[in-house]
Fold:
Amino acid sequence: MPRDQPRRPKLAELISSDIKRWIAAESLGEGDRLPNEKALIALYGCAKGTIREALKILEVEGLITLKTGPGGGAVISQPGMEPASRMLRNFLHFQTIDSQQVYQLRKLLEVELAVSVVGLLSDADFAALEANVAACHCHHDDIDQRRQRFLELGFHQLLAQACPNPLLAFVCHFLNDMLRDLVVVKKAYLPERKQFDHANCTYHRQLIDAYRAEDTARVRHLMREHMEDAERHMAALEAEMAAQMLVSDDVAAQATSSPLDALTHADRLVSSNALITSRGSDHDRNQ
Ligand SMILES: [Zn+2]
Structure:
């Protein structure tokens, strides 16, 4: 069978889809219960195993929680952002995505997201943002580069959490997750980027001030500049990384016992991506 030809859905999948439609039609929400197993078996006229499989599908999708024992059953739950983000990242896992492509989106979306939260940040949000900037700053001299990147990404994740548009929040959150994934790739060499770190830190501080003043125009201006600046740093990092790879090739050619020999070409490309990413994500480091 050709790989892309759609297969016929299994009975359990049809039932799980039907239950999803029913949940929507009845406007059921978090904490509401589905009919018990016996009732579902009678309703669909199928075997217990099929109903259990259908419920398992809904559980894996994060739509219900299955509780065992007396008073147990299927309870509707609100799916979190993480499983959806993870599936999308899996989808993109084997595709080559460079920093330019990520920033093509970030330059637009992070700016819109930044503007959308003006006037919506609570005292707790401000405290979290301040703590994030302080953590970036106080570890500046000795902090692990990955941790620094994560902290920078964390700043943007905090803003995403306050965004009133769930779709915009999800896409920005997803892009940050993707940058974070790239940073944690093994063997990634993360050159120091103090200038970049410093710039990010400064932008974050200025953004917090603009949020306190509820100055929408300034927030828009700062975030746009911050993203453009980050993109430039990323491009410089990519160039540095490319140069380093050339040097590595020379060394490898001269010394066959070099540990560099153990690095495949693919590994190097991955490392290169990770570098790039880590740079771009400077905004966001920790979560
Ligand atoms: Zn940032």
Q: What stands out?
A: Residues 74 and 164 are 30 Å apart (CA to CA).
